[in-house]
């Protein structure tokens, strides 16, 4: 027999949610059914990865959560302690491309969201510098994007997402274009930031290894229209580092996640 939870417990667990998608579908104007129905609940402060085959709707799910697009059916809710947020508010978005303005300094790139939000220049500059320091780029505020490596550009993009102090950070394959050493370093720095700042992170990746290394939960999606294929909790000693990356537990999780992903690729060409 399933015991029903007392209502106070249910309320407490609901307010602990940062993001909740219920029965969400997305059909684009061209008739492509990209998502769903998708059900996903992310607790405040949690780090989850979305993993799935190309075109299964991972970016679409992020865009719905960010309020950049609307669901065709179902509900998307985003909240924090004080209550529900307007779609798009309290959210930072990091894309695969750093998309920096080449004609202006790193500091001005990071200050952009504050400028658009009407924050005074002096305060904006101070906050941009603090965000740059948090990603290890304190000395590069006056540099121009062309003077930075790919990894540094991605750090600037991360600083720009953090500068508004969002509750939720959405990251769409941010490190996919980077070499492995840079990617590992950024993985570690992102984990340190997450531990220090306590934000909710939803991270899209194609890499089983990266998803297991970073996340508390790996959510595996089916092929389009994307639904949840598996939801795998990664129990690992914190803070994670090389010890975890080279452990038997890490390999086991990678095997489990790969096995959960395999049906999503059946029938698809791997070429
Ligand atoms: N604006 C759009 N109009 C029409 N179809 C779209 C649009 N955006 C995405 N799609 C389609 O919706 C499906 C899901 O796309 P989405 O980008 O969300 O997938 P994804 O899982 O993030 O893919 P990838 O891993 O390759 O980045 C794809 O078939 C894509 O072609």
TrEMBL record:
GO molecular function terms noted in the UniProt entry: ATP binding; ATP hydrolysis activity
Keyword flag Nucleotide-binding: yes
CDD domains attached to this UniProt entry: ABC_NrtD_SsuB_transporters
Presence of the UniProt keyword Ligase in the record: no
Domain ABC transporter per the UniProt entry, residue ranges: 19-248
UniProt cross-references to InterPro entries, sorted A to Z: AAA+_ATPase, ABC_transporter-like_ATP-bd, ABC_transporter-like_CS, ABC_transporter_ATP-bind, P-loop_NTPase
Record SMART domains: AAA (SM00382)
Keyword annotations: ATP-binding, Nucleotide-binding, Transport
PROSITE patterns the record matches: ABC_TRANSPORTER_1 (PS00211), ABC_TRANSPORTER_2 (PS50893)
Function: Involved in beta-(1-->2)glucan export. Transmembrane domains (TMD) form a pore in the inner membrane and the ATP-binding domain (NBD) is responsible for energy generation.
Family, per entry: Belongs to the ABC transporter superfamily.
Name by which UniProt lists this protein: ABC transporter ATP-binding protein
Source organism of this protein record: Bradyrhizobium guangzhouense
């Amino acid at each position: 027999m399933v015991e029903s939870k007392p209502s106070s417990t249910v309320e407490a667990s609901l307010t602990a949610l940062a993001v909740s998608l219920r029965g969400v579908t997305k059909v684009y104007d061209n008739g492509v059914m990209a998502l769903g129905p998708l059900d996903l609940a992310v607790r405040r402060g949690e780090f989850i990865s979305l993993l799935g085959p190309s075109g299964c709707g991972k970016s679409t799910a992020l865009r719905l959560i960010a309020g950049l697009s609307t669901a065709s059916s179902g509900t998307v809710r985003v909240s924090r302690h004080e209550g529900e947020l307007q779609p798009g508010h309290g959210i930072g978005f990091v894309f695969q491309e750093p998309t920096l303005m080449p004609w202006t300094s790193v500091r001005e790139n990071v200050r952009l969201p504050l400028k658009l939000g009407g924050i005074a220049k002096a305060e904006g500059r101070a906050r941009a510098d603090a965000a740059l320091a948090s990603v290890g780029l304190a000395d590069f505020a006056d540099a121009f994007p062309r003077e930075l490596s790919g990894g540094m550009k991605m750090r600037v993009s991360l600083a720009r997402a953090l500068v508004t102090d969002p509750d939720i950070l959405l990251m769409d394959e941010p490190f996919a274009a980077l070499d492995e050493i840079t990617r590992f370093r950024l993985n570690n720095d992102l984990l340190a930031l997450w531990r220090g700042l306590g934000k909710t992170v939803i991270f899209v990746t194609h890499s089983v290894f990266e998803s297991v290394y970073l996340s508390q939960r790996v959510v595996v999606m089916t092929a389009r229209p994307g639904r949840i294929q598996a939801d795998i909790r990664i129990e690992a000693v914190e803070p994670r580092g090389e010890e975890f990356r080279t452990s038997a537990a890490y390999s086991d999780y990678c095997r489990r996640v790969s096995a959960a992903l395999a049906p999503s690729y059946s029938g698809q060409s791997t070429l």
